[in-house]
C-alpha cells in the first residue's frame, strides 16, 4: 500500500504552467483529471495531473470565478494538446469518457474520435472500468452493490482518504452567504487545488493497485486489456459524435403533448364534476381510493398510506380502468390520469430535455454508462437514448425526432434481436 501523503502543487501563472509542460513532455505515463462547473456544465475550471510514483499532484487553475490569478485558457489549450494527444503516452483517468468530453469541447482529442479511433495516446486506462469488472455483481456487508467511485475505491482499496466535494461546496456556500449551492468555479483555488490534485494522485495509485489485482485473474485481465480499453475508445467516439436531432420536430411535438395533457385534464374534471390535480399523489389517492372505491394494492413502507406510484397506477388502470359498470363514470378519470402523466413525461424527458441538451449543430451527446445496469449491459443517460418510446406506446413518435446524417441510415435494434 502506498504512502497516504502527497504534495499538492497549484499552478496559477503562465510561466509556471510553461515550466510544467516542459517537464510533462518527457512523461511516458501520467494520470489526469478535470474539474468543471458541474456534472452537466462541462465548462473547464481546472486540470490536475500526476506521474509515478504519484507523490506530487499538480493543479492548473483555469476557470475560477474568484478574482484570483490563473493560467490563460488559450495558452493551456495550445500547450496541453501536444501532451494529451501524444501517441507514445500511457494515460490514466477515472471515468475517462467524461474528461475526454471536456477536452473535446476544447478541441483536444486524447483518446481518438469518430474518424480515427487510434488517434491520441497509446493507451488510456480507466480505473472506474477496472474497478467495475472486478466488482460487478458483488455487494458489501450491508447487501448494497459495491461502488466504483474514485474516493470510495481509493479509501477502501489503498487507504487513501480524500476530501469530499460536498464539503468544499458547503464551506463555499457558507463563506459567500449563498442560499443555493455554488458551482465549482466559485470555490477558491487554494481549496480546490489540493482537492483536485488528490484526484490525479489517487487515480494513478489506484490504477497500479487494480492492475496488480487484475493479474491474479487472467480472464479478467485479458478482458480489460484486450477489450475494455479498446471499447472505451469506441464509446468515447460515439459520445463525441452525438446523434443528429430534428429540433423543430421535437419542439412541435412538445406543444402537441402539452395540448393533449390539457385535454385529458379537462375530460377528467368533467367526469369528476370538479377540478382535480392529476399530478398530486395526495389528491388522486383520496379520489381513487376513497371516492371511486378502488382496492388498495400497494402501501407506502414509510407511511402505510396507499401508494400511487407510476407502476401502481398502470396496474390499477389495467385491472379496473374499463370497469364503468362497477365504479361508474368516475373510473374514467383513471386512464385519463395515466395519459396526462405520460404526456407530461414525454414532453419533459424526450422533447424539452433533449432540445435543452443540443449543441450548436443540433446534436445530442448522451453518456454511455459501463456499469449502469446489473446485467452488465450499457445504459444511457443525459438523456437516456436506449429507452426511447416505441411507436405503439405514444401517440406522437419520439423516434422520428432522431435522424441520420445525410447519406447514412439509422438502424434501431433491440438486444433480443441480436
Question: What do these coordinates show?
Answer:
The protein has helices spanning 14-24, 73-84, 96-104, 127-135, 150-158, 165-176, 189-214, 218-241, 247-272, 281-292, 310-320, 324-327, 333-356; strands at 7-11, 29-36, 44-50, 56-61, 90-93, 123-126, 243-244, 363-364, 367-369, 379-381. Helix 9 runs antiparallel to helix 13 (333-356). A hairpin with a 5-residue loop joins strand 3 and strand 4 (56-61). It is 45% helix and 11% strand.
How would you state the average pLDDT, rounded?
Answer: 92
Strand order of the largest sheet: 1-4-3-2-5-6
Order of helices and strands: EHEEEHEHEHHHHHEHHHHHEEE
DSSP strand count: 10
> Distance N terminus to C terminus?
44 Å
Main pleated-sheet profile: 6 strands, mixed
Summed up, what is this model?
By secondary structure, the protein is an alpha/beta fold.
Topology:
Layout: E1 7-11, H1 14-24, E2 29-36, E3 44-50, E4 56-61, H2 73-84, E5 90-93, H3 96-104, E6 123-126, H4 127-135, H5 150-158, H6 165-176, H7 189-214, H8 218-241, E7 243-244, H9 247-272, H10 281-292, H11 310-320, H12 324-327, H13 333-356, E8 363-364, E9 367-369, E10 379-381
Parallel strand pairs: 1-4, 2-5, 5-6
Antiparallel strand pairs: 2-3, 3-4, 7-8, 9-10
Which labels suit this protein?
10 strands, alpha/beta, 13 helices, two-stranded antiparallel sheet, 418 residues
